[in-house]
């Protein structure tokens, strides 16, 4: 009798669970929502909605082989199965309690990791099963798994050196600068390095420095210990923090000064202040969906001359600093605070200062420069910040001619400096 | 749509179950099941669904003709028609799935320049073609009768629980339930539990093991150390078991919810003590099909040949079994490998094997199975030499640092969990606990938690296609 009741209850609960989801989908308004956690617009059912016209057109296509309406139809999408994929994507993104269930999944997988590493002495273990993010045990500090140094990487570095040689030779009137930002993946102090025999530990940048073009001015932003890492990088994010980025600005300033003697005086910070109310769980915690001890998110309070910004050709402010400081904060867990505050990665940002400077700068960088673009730009009349991942059909010579570029600064980690995707098309 | 997709679980299934159980009459239930099955198939194969309907109804009409001929005493004509139907179905299978393979093999073997047709065939082709062929043969042999209603035949072939990956069923096995079935509470609850366990096997175990196995097999072979090579093939052997047996559990579970008792396909194959034992436990419906329709007829046809008759028939059958799995030489050689082992075990070696301690029998079996999975996993036969060299230590040891670099250390506890799951221990323990009064409640609660966990896993990475979809 107990078994019958138990089985009956089980089936009822299961049936209700199966039905609760489509009812939730029907009851919920389908709205386009950009997840700041995932930095993408979530798929919705509105993108896979079928109208009566779609069904009529499909029926016509089936019954009249010669009937070919214009545009991509539901019929075509269904035949090539892209509709089905989009439907499943909408089901996934709109699933009730999706984020909570993702945390459950993450918890189970992290338990496997903890169990596997329990008998081992590793001070740092993977933060998830499907990324290269690692976590220092019991500290809440995340960092990259060490990247490897070997023949494959040196071949890539050789290609990038050849690329730099080419662009320097083709633009003899332009100064080329590189600020290499050392991330944990290539750092000597990474506690995981002893367990990764091929760990980079600074070998790649050393190879680059030994073989770079002599007219390329290189500065290296490096750290020597875990203490420095904790001081200059976020615990839960792969970016440098306000203090680290300020240190980077200072290094850049001295580098630029070597070829730009009339550069305006270096800026001085008024204060390093936390953005009120922000509990920052950054990209590492977000990637691993790991439990996060939120940290403060600081910014540098500094006096800048007035300037204008144009993002992909349109005048607009970069980032949401004003909103954040006014208390308008994202509510999503693991929200991309760094990207929201400093601005997302876009193809082209143009900074214009009426500061009397006569030089223009081209800054090629990824998100690492977002926090200091305005600082560097304050020493130039016009600064063009380009993210090669987002900029279509980049041509250095065209940019130099179009915008009258005097100095080119490449800023970033080993990815910006050594990977093929960041090759600067002459 | 795959059983582990959210579209299936939360749109198709609840809608279908509601319609199915609301309708009172068996024929309406069959109608709903048929329509739902065709929608299920059309979702994945919008064009080939019409082909499936056409080929099934054509075979039904032929089977009806064969039945009539047999009733009229025209057995010779019936034999010709049935033979033509079987050959026709095989030719269809050949042209869809093997034309490219045949052309490539002839080109490379004989220096020809035949055009190689693009490989594109309906999902589940091998499964339902075998179902149809067995139907034709059974009708001719009068071990079953063709249904008067063609939709019953279509329902048998296209029934969505078993359409894409089996179990391969003979019409006679489901004939009675197609005509009359009444799922009771116990069937439905047991079916639902079985489905959820299958879902968990697939998305929690198989897909997780796949992540580690794929990373190892993606390495450049000459750099693969002995430890990683063994870990890779061991992980893969568990992956493929849980992937396929998980799907089968879902199919059988769904069938049971609807009142069908589909045949079992797996019986803890990794506790086998010989290769013969393994093939009595692995993909049982496929081996049953080959035994009934290929092996036994071959034995009968060649009964005058005494010397090595059974052995050569085993090799032939398993070469075909390998070919069934894929249009590629690695599958054929995989099948031939097992055929050879079975041939050896059918003789004096098998008798000597049974005298060994169980531990040695089991170790022998597992070792040979792992070797076999190498052939199955590596489609590119040119990699076999390098991989076996790795297994024998020819490339040295990778060391634990490589596991760290690949981020697969975490797979070790999953492997232990999978090993436990691949033995009858879980069943034995749950049966022992099942006698307690709280067992039904606890068991059902645990199953619901497992379902929720499985959904969490589905959400985390989309879903992977079932391995056997390509067959």
- Residue stretches of chain A low in confidence (pLDDT < 50, at least 5 long) are none
Shape of chain A: globular
User: How much strand content do the residues of chain B show?
Assistant: under 5%
Strand content of chain A: 15-25%
- Cα end-to-end separation of chain B: 16 Å
- Specify the biggest β-sheet of chain A: 8 strands, mixed
Greatest contact between two chains = A-B, 53 and 55 residues
Account of the protein in words:
- The complex is a heterodimer of chains A (426) and B (471).
- By secondary structure, chain A is an alpha/beta fold.
- Helices cover 38% and strands 15% of the residues of chain A.
- Chain A has helices at 2-27, 52-63, 74-79, 82-93, 98-117, 151-170, 203-211, 226-232, 242-257, 283-288, 321-325, 337-342, 373-377, 396-403, 414-418, and strands at residues 34-35, 40-41, 124-126, 133-136, 141-144, 175-181, 216-221, 271-274, 298-301, 307-311, 314-315, 348-353, 360-365, 382-386, 407-412.
- In chain A, the strands form 4 sheets. Chain A has an 8-stranded mixed β-sheet with strand order 7-6-15-13-14-12-10-11, sandwiched between helices. Chain A has a 3-stranded antiparallel β-sheet with strand order 3-4-5. Chain A has a two-stranded antiparallel sheet with strand order 1-2.
- In chain A, strand 4 and strand 5 (141-144) form a beta hairpin.
- Chain A is globular.
- With 471 residues, chain B is mainly α.
- Helices cover 73% and strands 0% of the residues of chain B.
- Chain B has 21 helices and no strands.
- Chain B has helices at residues 6-22, 26-44, 48-71, 75-110, 125-140, 150-158, 160-163, 171-179, 185-217, 226-258, 275-279, 284-301, 309-325, 329-345, 348-355, 358-377, 384-391, 400-406, 411-421, 425-433, 439-461.
- In chain B, helix 1 (6-22) packs antiparallel against helix 2, helix 4 packs antiparallel against helix 5 (125-140) and helix 9 (185-217) runs parallel beside helix 21.
- Chain B is globular.
- The two termini of chain B are 16 Å apart.
- The interface between A and B is large, with 53 and 55 residues.
């Amino acid at each position: 009798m107990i078994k019958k009741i138990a089985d009956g209850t089980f089936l009822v609960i299961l049936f209700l669970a199966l039905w609760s989801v489509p009812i939730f989908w029907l009851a919920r308004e389908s709205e386009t929502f950009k997840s700041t956690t995932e930095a993408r617009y979530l798929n919705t059912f509105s993108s896979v909605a079928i109208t009566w016209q779609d069904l009529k057109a499909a029926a016509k296509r089936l019954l009249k082989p010669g009937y070919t309406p214009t545009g991509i139809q539901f019929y075509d999408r269904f035949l090539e199965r892209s509709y089905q994929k989009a439907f499943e994507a909408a089901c996934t993104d709109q699933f009730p309690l999706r984020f909570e269930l993702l945390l459950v999944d993450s918890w189970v997988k992290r338990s496997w990791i903890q169990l596997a590493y329990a008998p081992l002495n590793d001070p740092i273990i993977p933060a998830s099963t499907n990324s290269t993010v690692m976590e220092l045990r019991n500290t809440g500090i995340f960092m990259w798994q060490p990247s490897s140094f070997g023949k494959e990487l040196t071949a890539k570095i050789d290609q990038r050196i050849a690329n730099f040689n080419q662009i320097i030779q083709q633009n003899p009137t332009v100064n080329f600068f590189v600020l290499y930002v050392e991330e944990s993946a290539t750092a000597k102090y990474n506690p995981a390095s002893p367990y990764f025999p091929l760990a980079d530990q600074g070998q790649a940048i050393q190879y680059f420095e030994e073989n770079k073009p002599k007219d390329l001015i290189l500065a290296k932003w490096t750290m020597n210990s875990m203490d420095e890492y904790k001081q200059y990088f976020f615990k839960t994010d792969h970016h440098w923090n306000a203090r680290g980025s300020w240190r980077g600005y200072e290094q850049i300033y001295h580098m630029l000064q070597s070829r730009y003697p009339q550069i305006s005086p270096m800026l001085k910070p008024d204060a390093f202040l936390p953005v009120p109310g922000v509990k920052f769980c950054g990209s590492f915690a977000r990637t691993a969906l790991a439990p996060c001890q939120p940290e403060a998110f600081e910014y540098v309070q500094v006096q800048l001359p007035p300037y204008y910004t144009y993002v992909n050709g349109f005048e607009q402010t970069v980032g949401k600093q004003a909103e954040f400081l006014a208390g308008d904060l994202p509510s999503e867990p693991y929200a991309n605070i760094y990207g929201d505050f400093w601005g997302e990665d876009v193809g082209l940002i143009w900074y214009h200062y009426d500061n009397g400077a006569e030089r223009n700068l081209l800054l090629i960088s990824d998100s690492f420069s977002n926090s200091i673009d305005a600082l560097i730009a304050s020493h130039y009349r016009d600064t063009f910040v380009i993210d090669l991942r987002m900029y279509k059909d980049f041509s250095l010579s065209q940019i130099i001619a179009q915008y009258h570029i005097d100095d080119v600064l490449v800023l970033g980690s080993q990815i910006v400096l050594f990977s093929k995707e960041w090759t600067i098309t002459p | 749509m795959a059983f582990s997709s959210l579209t299936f679980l939360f749109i198709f299934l609840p809608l279908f179950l509601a319609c199915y159980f609301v309708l009172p009459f068996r024929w309406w239930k069959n109608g709903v099941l048929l329509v739902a099955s065709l929608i299920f198939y059309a979702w994945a194969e919008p064009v080939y669904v019409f082909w499936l309907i056409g080929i099934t109804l054509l075979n039904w009409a032929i089977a009806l003709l064969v039945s009539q001929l047999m009733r009229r005493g025209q057995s010779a004509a019936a034999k010709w028609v049935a033979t033509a139907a079987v050959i026709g179905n095989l030719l269809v299978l050949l042209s869809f799935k093997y034309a490219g393979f045949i052309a490539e093999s002839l080109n490379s073997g004989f220096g020809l320049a035949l055009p190689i047709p693009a490989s594109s065939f309906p999902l589940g082709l091998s499964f339902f073609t075998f179902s149809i062929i067995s139907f034709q043969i059974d009708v001719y042999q009068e071990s079953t009768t063709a249904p008067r209603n063609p939709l019953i035949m279509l329902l048998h072939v296209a029934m969505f629980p078993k359409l894409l990956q089996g179990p391969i069923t003979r019409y006679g096995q489901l004939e009675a339930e197609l005509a009359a079935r009444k799922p009771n509470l116990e069937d439905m609850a047991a079916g639902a539990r079985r489905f959820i366990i299958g879902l968990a096997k697939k998305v929690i175990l198989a897909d997780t093991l796949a992540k580690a196995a794929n990373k190892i097999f993606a390495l450049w072979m000459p750099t693969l150390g002995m430890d990683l090579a063994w870990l890779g093939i061991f992980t893969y052997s568990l992956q493929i078991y849980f992937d396929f047996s998980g799907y089968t559990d879902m199919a059988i579970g769904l069938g049971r919810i609807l009142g069908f008792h589909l045949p079992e396909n797996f019986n803890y194959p990794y506790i086998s003590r010989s290769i013969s034992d393994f093939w009595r436990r692995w993909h049982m419906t496929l081996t049953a099909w080959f035994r009934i329709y290929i092996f036994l007829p071959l034995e009968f046809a060649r009964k005058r040949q005494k010397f090595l008759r059974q052995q050569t028939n085993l090799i032939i059958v398993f070469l075909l079994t390998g070919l069934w799995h894929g249009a590629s030489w690695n599958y054929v050689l995989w099948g031939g490998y097992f055929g050879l082992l079975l041939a050896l075990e059918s003789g004096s070696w098998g008798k000597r094997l049974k005298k060994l301690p169980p531990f040695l029998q089991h170790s022998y079996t597992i070792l040979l199975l792992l070797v076999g999975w190498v052939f199955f996993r590596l489609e590119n036969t040119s990699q076999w030499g390098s991989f076996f060299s790795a297994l024998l230590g020819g490339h040295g040891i990778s060391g634990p640092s490589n596991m760290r670099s690949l981020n697969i250390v975490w797979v070790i506890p999953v492997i232990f969990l999978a090993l436990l799951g691949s033995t009858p221990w879980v069943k034995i323990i749950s049966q022992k606990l099942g006698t307690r009064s709280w067992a039904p409640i606890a068991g059902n609660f645990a199953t619901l938690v497992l379902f929720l966990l499985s959904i969490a896993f589905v959400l985390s990475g989309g879903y992977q296609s079932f391995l056997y979809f390509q067959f």
